Amino acid sequence: MRIPRASRLTSPPRYVIAAVIASTGGVLNGLDTGVIDPITTMSSFTDEFGHPSPAIHGMIVSSILLSMAITSLFAGSISDNLGRTRAIALGALLYAIGATIEAGARILGVFLFGRLVAGVGEGFFLSTLVVYICEISAANHRGLLASLIQFFITSGLVMGYFSCYGTVSIQSSFSWRFPVAMQSGIALFLTVASLFYLPESPRWLFHHGHGAAVEAACIRLGISIIETDNLVEREEHSHGHRNEEESSTLGARLRKNYKHSIHNLRLVWVLDHGSRRFWHAPLLFKQAGLSSSTASFLASGVPAILLCLASVPGSLYADKIGRRASALYGGSILAAIMALIGSLTLQIAFTRFQAPADGSLSSRYIYSQ
């Protein structure tokens, strides 16, 4: 009788490992979303900075978007000139500096300045991450790996909420400084990995005339020779058309740069808006009837867990369902649920019944999916 041999465990291709490491930038996005509103409602935070008005609170929470939206307009040009990995490293380093300023702030103005610096870094690396992953991935895994960043964003949401849930009872500034300081450590890891481990994108190398380095990069990434040949053929074809367009007129060049900037801004918005709806979750859950801050943090973390779990099948079947269909149907459903949440939340202030609050909570859980 023949005894079957145990199957060997094979390590994943190196481009998969590189994509996973690059996707840790999504954790930073989710972490900031998960911690910023919970920490601003902690007693240790308000004891140090005072109780901000609703306008100031909104400025604290959303200030990172201001600088991120502006710098994302230039992210494409910077990554084209510096290279994908160096652009990611630059953005991650700026994010680490900004998070460090936030964690060590003693006055509210310094805290806001740290968030603005972090936003500059996030604007640089967030859209570049997706471009880099698409460029290094084999064609048969490109959709899955490109959507991996969404899973990391939702994982960061979970980490952020429950790190605040774990520190909310600590009677010192450590309760809000630690969740912010975590972001600095992860950003430094991404900086070092981008500079010293992640190979440069073969497409970027070829486009900038580093033909000899293309094959070496593909070998480091574990991309097949056939994939490399197809890459070169496609890039030669697109490079010829690009030269024709750039050599035409000044107006054509301006239109090209304008479209490039708008594309990067739209990419950042698509990646970012899904998680930012959790920014004011603790306050919204309090309005829905959860008075305890601990219970509010916990209830805010449960939708984050559901969103994280829901992103798994979305990533696995991204290529089969299709981008257009998922965007159209998903967007329509989200719009309808958001309208329902708004109407139910409005009724809470004008009725004594518990039904609108329960319906608002249930709708938020459904929306997170």
TrEMBL record:
<keyword id="KW-0812">Transmembrane</keyword>
<protein>
    <recommendedName>
        <fullName>Major facilitator superfamily (MFS) profile domain-containing protein</fullName>
    </recommendedName>
</protein>
<dbReference type="GO" id="GO:0016020">
    <property type="term" value="C:membrane"/>
</dbReference>
<feature type="transmembrane region" description="Helical">
    <location>
        <begin position="144"/>
        <end position="168"/>
    </location>
</feature>
<feature type="transmembrane region" description="Helical">
    <location>
        <begin position="295"/>
        <end position="316"/>
    </location>
</feature>
<dbReference type="InterPro" id="IPR020846">
    <property type="entry name" value="MFS_dom"/>
</dbReference>
<feature type="transmembrane region" description="Helical">
    <location>
        <begin position="111"/>
        <end position="132"/>
    </location>
</feature>
<keyword id="KW-0472">Membrane</keyword>
<dbReference type="Pfam" id="PF00083">
    <property type="entry name" value="Sugar_tr"/>
</dbReference>
<dbReference type="InterPro" id="IPR050360">
    <property type="entry name" value="MFS_Sugar_Transporters"/>
</dbReference>
<dbReference type="InterPro" id="IPR005828">
    <property type="entry name" value="MFS_sugar_transport-like"/>
</dbReference>
<dbReference type="GO" id="GO:0005351">
    <property type="term" value="F:carbohydrate:proton symporter activity"/>
</dbReference>
<dbReference type="InterPro" id="IPR036259">
    <property type="entry name" value="MFS_trans_sf"/>
</dbReference>
<feature type="transmembrane region" description="Helical">
    <location>
        <begin position="180"/>
        <end position="198"/>
    </location>
</feature>
<comment type="similarity">
    <text>Belongs to the major facilitator superfamily. Sugar transporter (TC 2.A.1.1) family.</text>
</comment>
<feature type="transmembrane region" description="Helical">
    <location>
        <begin position="56"/>
        <end position="75"/>
    </location>
</feature>
<keyword id="KW-1133">Transmembrane helix</keyword>
<feature type="transmembrane region" description="Helical">
    <location>
        <begin position="15"/>
        <end position="36"/>
    </location>
</feature>
<feature type="transmembrane region" description="Helical">
    <location>
        <begin position="328"/>
        <end position="350"/>
    </location>
</feature>
<dbReference type="InterPro" id="IPR005829">
    <property type="entry name" value="Sugar_transporter_CS"/>
</dbReference>
<feature type="domain" description="Major facilitator superfamily (MFS) profile">
    <location>
        <begin position="18"/>
        <end position="369"/>
    </location>
</feature>
